[in-house]
């Protein structure tokens, strides 16, 4: 009997979902290092320091005390209580413990948010350049990302520009501040404009505040704290950046009904929650005093200033980014095509960066330099830049 193979194919919803270019660059860097070459690694997005000892001990203690059983899928009550307190005091977001959910990193929160809001055929407005996975999260929901050039929006007016790019099928706006890859921090007035537009058009805002603690100039405004926004916003947070916990996969999301029920279903059927010892570490991490977080921020600011002055010195124009830990200079001096520019910089100066076009067409002509690395490494990179370009 002939074998019928037509059933062996992927579900169509994955057709438009890409794989990360960043992983390919990481592999190339590993291969160069294996050959014994010194590579200046500015392609990454991980804190320069290790997870603080006492946070690690909280997880170890939980393990030793047999906190190894199923926890409620949405998170331990003690964790959700601590999150509610943090959200009220730091983000001015007033919610109950039923309106927060622990997620496996910010990534699971974002995945669940897009899945909860978008139907096939819907559109979502995305300020661009944008963090690459967002395009895939939107297409993975069989929806279409509508890229809104952030620079144009800031110049011509946020509301006017959103109006221009919006369609009758638009259901959501992805709103990331501080931004990856540009380091941009939206002002309160800009947040208010996005909010006014969302209310006027009855849209949902998916807010990504992964870098909320890394604002050097200006203030961090959680859009869900603005009047009329809590009921239409799903806000996603992570422990990855603030507490150097990238590998722990710890995050949380905040939303009201009907969204919270949807988030709960997605978390339940994908991971059934965050691992129990990690939740204990999250509870402990939330006790970190604000002065400690400010001290980390100050360390990043030093790195930012060092890198940005080196970039400008060699003619790679770059305004100091107001937040996050990336610089996003114009590199047309090296090559107009950012993939070619990244390749040249890697081959000739052994500096690993990410091509701006990976973050949307609006990132073309730029490279992303991640400065969450040691100060000596930034100084070495600055020296390599000078040798190559000065
Ligand atoms: C803008 C942005 N959002 C969300 C995340 C999610 O991080 P994680 O899944 O580690 O919490 C990242 C990580 O790089 C990011 O840059």
Structure description:
The protein has 390 residues and is of the alpha/beta class. The protein folds into 2 domains: 12-50 and 291-389, Aspartate Aminotransferase, domain 1; 66-285, 3-Layer(aba) Sandwich (Aspartate Aminotransferase, domain 2), CATH 3.40.640. It contains 13 helices and 12 strands. The protein has helices spanning 21-34, 53-64, 77-91, 105-117, 133-140, 150-156, 158-165, 188-201, 259-270, 276-285, 290-313, 338-349, 375-389, and strands spanning 40-41, 100-103, 123-128, 144-149, 170-176, 204-208, 233-238, 251-254, 326-327, 351-352, 354-355, 367-370. A 7-stranded mixed beta sheet has the order 2-8-7-6-5-3-4, sandwiched between helices. Helix 2 (53-64) packs antiparallel against helix 10 (276-285). It starts with 20 loop residues before the first helix and ends with a helix. It binds pyridoxal-5'-phosphate (PLP).
């Amino acid at each position: 009997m002939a074998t019928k193979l037509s059933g062996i194919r992927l579900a169509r919803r994955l057709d438009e979902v890409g794989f990360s270019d960043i992983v390919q660059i990481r592999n190339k860097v590993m291969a160069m290092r294996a050959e014994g070459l010194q590579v200046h690694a500015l392609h990454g997005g991980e804190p320069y320091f290790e997870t603080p000892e006492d946070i690690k001990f909280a997880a170890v203690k939980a393990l030793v005390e047999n906190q190894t059983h199923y926890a409620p899928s949405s998170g331990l009550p003690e964790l959700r209580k601590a999150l509610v307190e943090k959200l009220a005091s730091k983000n001015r977001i007033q919610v109950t413990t039923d309106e927060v959910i622990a997620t496996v990193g910010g990534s699971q929160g974002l995945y669940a948010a897009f899945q909860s809001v978008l139907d096939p055929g819907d559109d979502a407005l995305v300020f661009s350049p944008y963090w690459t996975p967002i395009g895939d999260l939107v297409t993975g929901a069989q929806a279409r990302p509508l890229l809104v050039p952030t620079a144009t929006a800031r110049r011509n007016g946020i509301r006017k520009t959103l109006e221009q790019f919006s369609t009758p099928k638009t259901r959501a706006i992805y709103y990331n501040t501080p931004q990856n890859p540009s380091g941009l921090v939206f002002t309160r007035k800009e947040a208010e404009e996005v909010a006014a537009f969302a209310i006027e058009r009855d849209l949902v805002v998916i807010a990504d505040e992964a870098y909320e603690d890394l604002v050097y100039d200006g203030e961090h405004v959680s859009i869900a704290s603005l009047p009329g926004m809590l009921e239409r916003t799903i806000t996603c947070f992570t422990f990855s950046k603030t507490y150097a916990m990238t590998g722990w996969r710890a995050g949380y999301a905040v939303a009201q009904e009907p969204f919270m029920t949807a988030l709960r279903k997605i978390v339940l059927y994908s991971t059934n929650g965050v691992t129990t010892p990690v939740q204990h570490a999250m509870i402990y991490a939330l006790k970190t005093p604000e002065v400690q977080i400010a001290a980390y921020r100050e360390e990043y600011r030093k790195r930012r200033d060092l890198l940005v002055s080196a970039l400008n010195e060699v003619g790679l124009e770059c305004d100091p980014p107001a937040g996050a830990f990336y610089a996003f200079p114009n590199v047309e001096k090296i090559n107009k095509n950012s993939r070619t520019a990244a390749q040249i910089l890697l081959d000739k100066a052994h500096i690993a960066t990410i091509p701006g076009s990976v973050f949307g067409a609006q990132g073309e002509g730029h490279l992303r330099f991640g400065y969450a690395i040691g100060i000596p490494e930034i100084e070495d990179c600055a020296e390599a830049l000078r040798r190559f370009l000065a």
